[in-house]
TrEMBL record:
GO CC aspect terms: cytoplasm
A UniProt-annotated Pfam family: MMR_HSR1
Superkingdom as given in the UniProt entry: Bacteria
Entry keyword Heme: no
GO molecular function per UniProt: ATP binding; ATP hydrolysis activity; GTP binding; metal ion binding
Official protein name in the record: Redox-regulated ATPase YchF
Length: 336
């Protein structure tokens, strides 16, 4: 499963610093606006202590973690969507490619690091970025509505679907115009097809120490219905929390396969069935799925491995209707 998180924010808030710490890649980090013009992409392992425990128990030759792809996207500024300020349209198109967003907000105080001319405080920074995303989405919606309305007058199934699309587009247009959240539309097919920026899963990284983060910005994020992580990006120990939060907001879980050859964490959407999990391993396995042998991580470790789990009845045989749980260890049986 391909998973990507776009790192967005105003210039000089810590986006490239976050990316470098996450990925250990050498990229350009400079104290001036638009030091990043082309997006940087890095693959980051999802921290999971369970993986190492299983690998040691199985004496595995390889240990392979779940991963998330992070895009370091150049800083947005006021006017990016409507005026193309700061090469804004190019940067906004990079965000469209991602599954979710982490918005970096500057909460630390450092007069030596230039602050964007429109930025005065963290709450203002949030408003600037969210407004630019909403304006870009309004432009997308405005261009799409005439085509959908034209399709809605055509007879047959396509016309009926187009009428529903027009209704949804109008609702979204009203919400965006009023500065309202699109969280309620995140799972809507119209929104997914248009890859609207404001509807992408999102969390905030408040860059600073606990004492730097005021209650106002916390309340603002809570009112949106979003979550945040406070991380001092000068301290690498805070980074695992960022990766875990990115994995969490995408509604993802990990299941494991383990043996002498390798122990691996596989990524699936929460509430996926056993055949879907099988498909994460290999696409053919989903169609040819017969059954899954399943044992939970805690039971597997407590009993001491495969044979003991089987002997104590902790290992179960599950069929196509089984919903895989986070931490399940699976053996997939499939037709040849």
């Amino acid at each position: 499963m391909h998973l990507s998180i776009g790192i967005v924010g105003l210039p000089n808030v810590g986006k490239s610093t976050l990316f470098k710490t996450l990925t250990s890649q050498e990229i350009l980090i400079a104290n001036y606006e638009f030091a990043t013009i082309d997006k940087n992409v890095g693959i980051v392992a999802v921290p999971d202590e369970r993986l190492q425990v299983l690998s040691k128990m199985s004496n595995s030759a390889k240990t392979i973690p779940a991963v998330v792809e992070f895009y370091d996207i150049a800083g947005l500024v006021k006017g990016a969507a409507t005026e193309g300020a700061g090469l804004g349209n190019k940067f906004l198109s990079h965000i469209r490619e991602t599954n979710a967003i982490v918005q970096v907000v500057r909460c630390f105080s450092n007069p030596e690091i230039i602050r964007n001319q429109h930025s005065t405080d963290p709450a203002t920074d949030i408003d600037i970025i969210n407004t630019e995303l909403a304006l870009k989405d309004l432009d997308t919606i405005t261009k799409r509505i005439p085509k959908a309305e034209s399709d809605s007058h055509r007879p047959g199934k396509e016309g009926v679907d187009a009428k529903k699309e027009v209704e949804v587009l109008r609702q979204i247009e009203e919400k965006l115009s009023q500065g309202q959240s699109l969280l309620d539309f995140s799972d809507n097919e119209v929104v997914k097809n248009l890859a609207l920026l404001s509807a992408k899963p999102k969390f905030y990284l408040l860059n600073g120490k606990e004492e730097d983060v005021g209650q106002e910005v916390k309340d603002k994020i809570a009112q949106e219905g979003n979550d945040f992580v406070i991380a001092d990006l000068s301290n690498p120990e805070t980074i695992p929390d960022v990766i875990k939060k990115a994995y969490e907001i995408l509604g993802l879980i990990s299941f494991f396969t383990t043996g002498e050859d390798e122990t691996r964490a596989w990524t699936i959407v929460k509430d996926s069935s056993a055949p879907v999990a099988a498909g994460a391993i290999h696409t053919d396995f989903q169609n040819k799925f017969i059954r899954a042998e399943v044992v939970g991580y805690t039971d597997f470790v407590a009993t001491g491995g495969w044979s003991q789990s089987r002997q104590t009845g902790k290992l179960r045989v599950e069929g196509k209707e089984y919903i895989v749980k986070d931490g399940d260890i699976l053996v997939i049986r499939h037709a040849p």
